[in-house]
Amino acid sequence: MGLESAITFVIAIFIFAITPGPGTFAIIARALVSGSSSCVTLCFGMAISDVVYLFLACLGLATIAENYGTVFTIIRFAGAIYLFYLGWKMWTTEVKMEFAKERENPKGHWGGFIQGFLISASNPKVILFYIAFLPSFMDLTVLSMADIIVAAGLTIVALMLGLMLVAVFAGSARKMFRSERSMKRLNRTAGSVMAGAGIYLATNG
Question: pTM, whole model, 2 decimals?
């Protein structure tokens, strides 16, 4: 992965991190109750869970790309369709600002980490995203463990930046996050990026 691809990769993962979903709403709920600093371990748990999915996606896709070219092409186009579908869903889904009360969690940093890990791990769409997303940035036919480690490191950095940005804004600008209009704009911006990524993946095989 070259420098330009790495920067683009980080930006794309950052946008993925701030896209409204179960993880971001859990962070918002906690930040509204306890402030942004209470979300650090929660966000880190989510990031580590995503990296596990990233490793699984990389290893599986690399094997398929190396040995089953036709199957990989089908997966690439299926991934493009899935990304475009995500973009369409973000554009059309109604925004409902309903924040559930934060459940009691075990005290200490481990409690937040485990909660974050489980929130992300329980969402199978995460691995689908990485399966659809990775071929745009990596040549999976020559993928090495070093490449995967670099991608994992960049993913953690981008996710932590994005998730903690959500936490900081939720803690300091509550009105913004309680506005359905603002959330709809965020949805549509992220949706446009997702759809664009799908088109790029389909046309740059």
Answer: 0.67
CA-to-CA separations, 196 to 14, 61, 80, 149, 192, in angstroms, rounded: 16, 22, 9, 26, 6
What is the amino acid identity at position 50? D
Alpha carbon of 169 to those of 24, 55, 125, 140, 187: distances in Å?
11, 30, 25, 37, 16
Reduced to 3 states, what is the DSSP secondary structure of residue 107? coil
Q: Which positions ≥6 away from 174 have C-beta within 8 Å?
A: 32
Quick one: CA torsion of 51, 52, 53, 54, rounded to 10 degrees?
Answer: 50
- Dihedral of CA atoms 90, 92, 98, 104 in degrees, nearest 10, equals -30
Q: Which residue has the tokens 């959500």?
A: 166
Distance CA 7, CA 13 (A): 10
Mean pLDDT by 10 residues, the chain (205 residues): 81 86 78 80 92 85 63 67 73 61 50 83 74 76 83 94 90 61 69 68 62
3-state secondary structure of 60: helix
